[in-house]
Amino acid sequence: MKIKKLKITLDEKSLVDISFDISSSLALVGQSGSGKSLTLKALLSMLPRSMKCELEVDAEFELKAGVSISFVPQNPFTALSPLTKIKKQFFTDEKKMEELFSQVGLDIALAQKFAPELSGGQLQRVVLAMALEHKPKLILLDEPTTALDPQTRVLILELLKELQKIYGFKMLFVTHDIVSAKKLCEDICVLRDGKIVENGKMNDVLSNPQESYTKILIDAGFANREFRK
What we know:
Layout: E1 2-10, E2 13-21, E3 25-29, H1 36-43, E4 52-57, E5 69-72, H2 94-103, H3 120-131, E6 138-142, H4 150-167, E7 170-175, H5 178-184, E8 187-192, E9 195-201, H6 202-207, H7 212-222
Parallel strand pairs: 3-7, 3-8, 5-6, 6-7
Antiparallel strand pairs: 1-2, 1-4, 8-9
Helix pairs in contact: 2-3, 3-4
């Protein structure tokens, strides 16, 4: 799918002006304030009314939250009610819910619990199961592994790749974490001040970045990782 045009302005000032293609899995990478969150909000139709948004997608795809696209937030606690049993927060029948739990590696017995009774990794798997309920064509991922420990982070990324094989959805992974982006995505767009300054195949960009800004992000992302190689 192609985002032919995404332009966000506030009082005539341009905040985001980009276009990109999600062929399979795309990482949108940039520092805080680069426009990543605004891009997500625009695709979810959640921008403040004070902002003007011009959005054009290819004719074959309709952006509609809860129908053609699903959203996985950074913190799974924000997506789940702490006062309602997990099974009551699904819209599908029990048989389908059991199938979804199995696909994300969870025991269906956890559906009888409340969100605070589960670990962060378990909660993120529940959110993934919810995201798959209506078989979306696109999943928007807002740094879904940031709050997880390193081992669980890797497991969630591998799970996403396996689920993509089953369901065939496309992924837009919004993150500042180059290491996780490399593990999950085939392509990358580097965002700075609301503009895409570099894009291409993940391995090509990481092995031979053309922009100094990209080099800074890469060095910062891998500097503290024990598996830097």
